[in-house]
Write a structure and sequence with these properties.
Keywords: Oxidoreductase
Distance between the termini: 18 Å
Bound molecules: ligand LIJDXRAZ
Pfam families: FAD_binding_3
Protein name: Bifunctional 3-(3-hydroxy-phenyl)propionate/3-hydroxycinnamic acid hydroxylase
Radius of gyration: 23 Å
Organism: Phenylobacterium montanum
GO molecular function: 3-(3-hydroxyphenyl)propionate hydroxylase activity; FAD binding
Number of helices: 13
Helix content: 25-40%
CATH class of one domain: Alpha Beta
Length: 497
């Protein structure tokens, strides 16, 4: 950090994406300040799901076990007709996942956020400021000046970079004059969160009831919560559906009286929006500030945490002077197509669920039941695309793919690849590589005894792509596969040492 800066990175918004980014940066020794307008963590649930990739990010921060302790792995996700026939079935509890963590996990967002904020206190270079409201951003060649209203009066800070993790109504986005691309989905839903008293009386799977008379979602959550969502019908107002008697009538068919008590009721409009620019000079957007999607794929929060994981190592390389600022342009180039593909999946699911015309619903049911009978199922909520462009060796086998994390049985229990190899980029090769070529890069020969428990899985990955080495980025996406010397040289050209 240079003398005239208060921190390397100012993060506006200390929700789960902002705090994850703060942790990932602080872990690399950067000084970060996360500022949030609220006094405390928002106490009511919002996101309900994180996938295995997100748990792996939390693993790198040392909080995966704590987060999993308050979460519930999701066994199955069914989309049913009004009559209970299966339109789509995703067996998320079967078949494991590339990171080794359960593929789909139902969470209680306030519990997850509390764990992340508690961890922040372990990093001396990370600061959290609450009740700070951003009022102004000004950037020049060296940094960004940010003005805040705080309980102690106005505060002005200078940071090398500012990241807006400040949600759907992002002030950072607004102050930066960044527009949103509207993907034309706008449906009003009533969200009901409950505290569970009798878990055995609730469905043990996640459900979308594609009933044109009232499209309905019923999903599990962590920390003893359960959620229902009901689509509003034309003519219904928020006031109508938030009435306790109305809610009791909606819940009646679920026979959960006495098994749950109401914690929160709210009407939301489910949107699909993508920011046109994710970086404007020294200001970047992440999470809901950069993209919003309907909840049907459970990917809103996951996409934000992926943004944080993608951005954190790039900001660190640029701030350390090891990579040119242009590396930050690969952030949107990589993340936007990924997010748009996931939004397409969420929209496909949403458009399946949100049909209220009985004839259209009957046609949907007939088509999807026939498709299912023919064994022709669409990709599941865990079928994420690889990175297609950016900081990868484009067009080579494996480039842009998510690199798996094998787990092995060790003396102390399950040992995971990332815990053995540590943070940063890894070059893993079958043959030895000249250390001169890999200066500044963690180079691992597959025969290294530390890699033995994982060697078979990694060898199989390489064999499938007919390659002798793989370079894995700090966010665990593959830079490229090929010759070790070629990969090391390609990486050094982008991320000098
Ligand atoms: O609607 C939600 O918030 C969760 C949807 C979801 C996503 C992935 C798996 C699963 O069982 C449910």
């Amino acid at each position: 950090m240079t003398d005239n800066l208060d921190c390397d990175v100012l993060i506006v918004g200390a929700g789960p994406v902002g705090v994850t980014l703060a942790l990932l940066l602080a872990k690399q020794g950067l000084s970060v300040l996360a500022a949030d307008r609220a006094a405390d963590i928002y106490p009511l649930p919002r996101a309900a799901h994180i996938d295995h990739e997100i748990v792996r990010v939390f693993q790198s921060l040392g909080v995966a076990d704590a987060i999993m302790a308050s979460s519930k792995p999701a066994a199955r996700y069914d989309f049913l007709t009004a009559g209970g026939e299966v339109l789509l079935r995703f067996n998320t509890g079967e078949g494991g996942s590339p990171s080794g963590w359960p593929a789909a996990n139902m969470i209680h967002q306030p519990s997850l956020e509390a764990t992340l904020r508690e961890r922040l206190a372990d990093f001396p270079t990370a600061r959290l400021r609450t009740e700070w409201t951003l009022t102004c951003l000004d950037q020049d060649e060296q940094g960004v000046q940010a003005s805040f209203e705080t309980p102690e009066g106005p505060q002005v800070l200078r940071a090398a970079y500012v990241v807006g993790c400040d949600g759907a109504r992002s002030t950072v986005r607004e102050l930066s004059g960044i527009d949103l691309d509207d993907l034309a989905f706008d449906e009003p839903w009533l969200v009901i969160d409950t505290i569970v008293h009798a878990p055995s009386r609730l469905p043990a799977l996640n459900l979308q009831i594609c009933d044109p008379a009232r499209p309905t979602t019923c999903v599990q959550m962590g920390s003893g919560r359960h959620r229902w969502e009901f689509m509003l019908k034309p003519g219904e107002t928020a006031e109508d559906v938030l009435d306790d008697g109305f809610i009791a009538a909606l819940l009646k068919p679920w026979n959960v009286e006495g098994a749950v008590s109401l914690e929160r009721k709210a009407v939301y409009r489910f949107h699909a929006l993508v920011a046109r620019e994710w970086r404007k000079g020294r200001v970047l957007l992440a999470g809901d500030a950069a993209h919003q999607m309907p909840p049907f794929a459970g990917q809103g929060l996951c996409s934000g945490v992926r943004d944080a994981a993608n951005l954190a190592w790039k900001l660190a390389e640029v701030l350390r002077g090891r990579a040119p600022e242009a590396l930050l342009d690969t952030y949107q180039a990589e993340r936007e197509p990924h997010v748009r593909a996931i939004i397409d999946l969420a929209l496909m699911m949403g458009r399946t669920v949100c049909i209220t015309d009985p004839a259209a619903a009957a046609a949907r049911d007939a088509a999807m039941l026939a498709q299912r009978a023919a064994g022709d199922a669409p990709p599941g909520p865990m079928a994420f695309p690889p990175l297609s462009a950016g900081c990868i060796v484009e067009g080579t086998p494996g480039a842009g793919e998510y690199f798996p994390q094998p787990w092995a049985e060790g003396a102390g229990g399950q040992a995971k690849l990332d815990d053995v190899l540590g943070d940063g980029a890894w070059l893993i090769s079958i043959d030895a590589v000249d250390p001169i070529l890999t200066d500044g890069l963690a180079a691992w020969r597959l025969s290294n005894p530390a890699l033995q428990p994982y060697a078979e899985a990694i060898r199989a990955w390489l064999a499938k792509r007919e390659m002798e080495a793989v370079l894995i980025r700090p966010d665990r996406y593959v830079f490229g596969a090929g010759s070790a010397a070629g990969l090391a040289a390609g990486w050094a050209a982008l991320i000098g040492s």
